[in-house]
Amino acid sequence: AAVAVIGYLIGRFQRPNSTPASDATRRELKRAQAVVVDLERISQRVRRELALHHANLAIFKRRVCELTRTSETSDWQLLCDEAERLLKPTQDLAMQLAHAYEGIRQQGSRLMSFSGQRCDPLTGLCNRQALNETLENYLTMHRRYGMLFSIAVFDLDHFKKFNESQGLPQGDRLLKQVAAMLDQQARDTDVVTRSGGEEFIVVLPGTELPGATNFAERMRAMISRSTTQTVSAGVATVVDGDDTKTFLTRADSALYAAKAAGRNAVYCHNGDDLYPAESQDITSPAAATIVEQPTRAEPADAVAASS
User: Pick the catalytic residue: 198, 199, 208, 292?
Assistant: First the structure.
């Protein structure tokens, strides 16, 4: 009993040291559960549609067997009517299977992020390879089905100076802190990546430009309040004709505009023009709805200001 009590107390005191790893594991498990739920939903929908189609097909087969015993014109007209009735459910099933296929591809892309080759070793986020594969899949769904999605690119301001003054361990700690904030604030369906150095890219499926801008502005303010550094961000929404390179180039252009405007800002690219997040001049058809932006945070503290 004494040994058991001592073991319990030692384990309890050591438990706080594993909290960050436990939090990361819980986030990964939550993402995995979301993938499982989506895959189950897809399989149930396909099974239901297949069962319904099988019943319709059985009725059509029985009618064909009955009509093969006669060659009366009226009976063959009935056969044409039966074929017409079967045609629409068959076309609907084909469409459902196509959507299911793309849904499975999307979930497969999310599953890839659990692979070590697609995981950033410092932050635990998806890496550049996972980002490129995700964008390719989403761009394919945009071309086929018109699926809308956006990306938000975040870059820590004056990170090189921070590393020089504070040291690389503090720089790594800051990167992990920012990564954790992005991961916690993103939805289960969003893909949060570290694309390299101090740059992070969040893929936001089903999100138009105002929603993506709102997310970027909220994260900018949160990072400014929670750390000694500020962050600049660029936001873009997919448009017809985009490929991975043109899409990322538009978002990077918005990011560079935020840097040129003095940093600690969010800029958007609507496919034609660049403008700051505070602007209400959203002219893109995909971004017709204006989303009220949160109040900008006060400037960062003296450390950030001096950098």
Answer: 198
